[in-house]
Design brief:
By secondary structure, the chain is α+β, with helices and mostly antiparallel strands. It contains four helices and five strands, in the order H-E-H-E-E-H-E-H-E. Strand 2 and strand 3 form a beta hairpin. The longest helix has 14 residues. The protein is globular, with a radius of gyration of 24 Å.
Length: 170
């Protein structure tokens, strides 16, 4: 509880007041490459720009295949853990499992491959306790962009298209 006279500003503010700041270009999805070009032109001409303009890299979709392996674990426990992970994170497309390894496939939205891979490498460890996943280690990671994924599927050497969404044994 703050002790002060009604209407007096909080201590340490020196009579300052809070004001709103505009969200800027792109907040509502209106950002475009022209915004970045305008910012570059302002720097090149030396003119005084208005509000700060920010260059943004649009995010892309990445297809992730994460492979994990370790000591044998009862199939029921592996399945339950993967189902819990899929429930907690509905972005998972499909999981295949055996009693000593599993493979998880999903789409990740990220700025670049490095960001997508970093998120994928944290997935198993960060959710090991919440989903009660086996104490396995990551033994494989594939991160490919959307175009490469679709090209592989079209050429017939991509992921098995018959694998339905969900958690399935090998």
């Amino acid at each position: 509880m703050r002790r002060a006279r009604p209407g007096s500003p909080p201590r340490g503010t020196g009579g300052r007041t809070l004001t709103s700041v505009g969200a800027g270009a792109g907040f509502d999805g209106s950002w475009s490459a022209d915004t970045a070009v305008d910012a570059t032109a302002d720097r090149a001409t030396g003119s005084e720009p208005g509000p700060a303009k920010e260059e943004r890299t649009p995010s892309r979709l990445w297809h992730i295949t994460l492979s994990v392996s370790g000591a044998e674990t009862p199939l029921k426990e592996v399945r339950r853990g993967l189902e819990q992970l899929a429930h907690d994170h509905p972005f998972l497309l499909t999981s295949r499992y055996a009693n000593d390894h599993a493979e998880i496939r999903y789409w990740e939205e990220a700025r670049d491959l490095h960001d997508a891979a970093a998120v994928a490498l944290r997935l198993w460890g960060e959710h090991r306790s919440s989903a009660q996943l086996p104490p396995w280690e990551i033994v494989g990671l594939e991160v490919i962009d959307r175009e490469t994924y679709h090209q592989r599927v079209a050429e017939g050497y991509g992921p098995p298209p018959a694998a339905p969404v969900g958690v399935h044994p090998y």
